[in-house]
Amino acid sequence: MSIARGLPWRFFFRSINTPASCSLPDHRNAKTPPVSQINRSYYTSRVTLAAMASSFSKVVAALIGALIFSLLVTYGSCATPANFTASDFTADPNWEAARATWYGAPTGAGPDDNGGACGFKNVNLPPFSAMTSCGNQPLFKDGKGCGSCYQIRCQKHPACSGNPETVIITDMNYYPVSKYHFDLSGTAFGAMAKPGRNNELRHAGIIDIQFKRVPCNYPGQKVTFHVEEGSNPVYFAVLVEFEDGDGDVVQVDIMEANSGYWTPMRESWGSIWRLDANHRLQAPFSLRITNESGRKLVANRVIPANWAPNNYYRSIIQY
Q1: I want to staple 290 with a disulfide (CB 3.0 to 4.6 A). Which of 141, 150, 242, 251 is the partner?
Q2: What domain range is 238 assigned to?
Q3: Ordered per-residue pLDDT tens for the chain, 319 residues
Q4: 100 - beta bridge partners?
Q5: What CATH code is carried by the domain that includes residue 296?
Q6: Is residue 128 part of a domain?
Q7: Looking at the DSSP assignment, which residues form a beta bridge with residue 299?
Q8: CATH classification at residue 160
Q9: Per the domain annotation, does 185 fall within a domain?
Q10: From the CB of residue 59, how many other CB atoms can be counted at a distance below 10 Å?
């Protein structure tokens, strides 16, 4: 969802001064003009009034447009329509230019439900620890960017520390403000600040940042599967999370008990993959995941015969 929701942008409009008062003409000794002159005068007045009305309409339209944009900026969710270009303020070839905003609670994880368009849950808790971000399409990648990790830093604002912080893509930004747009949690945005200046940086609303892709690292974690609500003997949906390295998954395959072959699952949304079967599925299930680099891992019989929806199943595999 967006431009920094905590802080409205301010729009400054130059005041429009009304012209000096016009004195009314003295008609007491005036002669009546010819009809043709009256017609010309009448026509000229109408044209002048029309032009004035058109100009006034344009001014009103501009003011209304600015007001609507201001409201969208202030109250949007994980996204706000705009057409900015991130300024390239670094010559470091390892970093790219982007813009950052934030949304949700100032010290929160972003979404009110601590989830997001990737399907991850409880992103306010470790190992995500609220260091999360919405990504626009080049980062979110129709869900295949879910779980990828980036270092971000800011340098231009006085409150910026310049130190890199790592964030994880957990949500989708539908209306970016630049080619690369990180709509961060309040926690992640404030983490880029100098000590004690987190709120000052958040008050900036939208800032230029630098970013680069980095390997994900979940110490002590193994690849984990969450069987989604609604799964049943002929429909199976699973969330994949906590992958080191690329951090993302571009394909998931499932093998039923004693079948001996892999069946491709379909991406449902975000990092959730599903299988719509034409028969009763036979557990336990093995799952094979493929990351963006093409590396495959197999979690043998990771989903037990007595599996149940809305449960986590931790594997013993990791990239």
Answers
A1: 251
A2: 224-314
A3: 444 333 333 333 323 333 233 333 333 333 334 434 434 443 444 434 344 444 545 544 444 444 434 433 333 356 443 333 333 344 567 899 999 999 999 999 998 899 999 999 999 999 999 999 999 999 999 999 999 999 999 999 999 999 999 999 999 998 889 999 999 999 999 999 999 999 999 999 999 999 999 999 999 999 999 999 999 999 999 999 999 999 999 999 999 998 999 999 999 999 999 999 999 999 999 999 999 999 999 999 999 999 999 999 999 999 9
A4: 182, 207
A5: 2.60.40.760
A6: yes
A7: 287
A8: 2.40.40.10
A9: yes
A10: 12
